[in-house]
Specification:
Elements: H1 2-12, H2 17-31, H3 39-48, H4 62-72, H5 74-84, H6 95-109, H7 117-131, H8 134-153
Length: about 160
């Protein structure tokens, strides 16, 4: 009986920020394979994903804030990405890397005090270890380092 109660409370726990970030990454990455994405597609991808933790509420979750924020600001984020990734056109950047960079830039530019730039970079690099290769990690780190420098110089602005 005690084991069942313990198991039940573990299921009822809210996912960690990292788990929510990973889920958001998966949702946003999957949407890159659609020609046109409308908000209803974003909502559907979020809600029907087999990777969505049972306890993850769409409206109040960090994962949803990331998905919706990145989706709504993707043009602005992409313009920043192009300027930060010297000599790289957006279409040359891999889908995994674009997704990681969009999430990290969104976190950095949203000026959330719970996610300082160093945390956003570290989280992007951790996700890169899981979903990408070593060369990509260097690229992601370089672009995000350039983003921090641009923010410090006042040439990359928070939302």
């Amino acid at each position: 009986m005690v084991a069942a109660q313990s198991h039940g409370s573990a299921q009822g726990r809210k996912p960690s920020r990292r788990a929510e970030r990973i889920f958001a990454f998966k949702v946003l990455y999957g949407l890159l394979f659609l020609k046109e994405v409308k908000e209803r597609d974003l909502i559907r991808a979020f809600m029907v994903s087999p990777d969505r933790p049972e306890t993850l509420d769409r409206e109040s979750s960090y994962a949803w804030a990331l998905c919706k924020g990145v989706w709504e600001q993707r043009d602005r984020l992409d313009k920043s990405l192009v300027s930060l990734s010297q000599n790289w056109r957006l279409e040359r950047i891999g889908k995994v890397e674009i997704t990681l960079l969009r999430i990290a830039l969104f976190e950095m530019m949203s000026a959330d005090p719970d996610v300082p730039p160093k945390v956003a970079i570290n989280e992007a690099l951790e996700l890169s270890k899981q979903f990408s290769d070593e060369k990509s990690r260097g690229f992601v780190n370089g672009v995000l380092d350039a983003a921090v420098k641009a923010m410090d110089a006042g040439t990359l602005h928070s939302a």
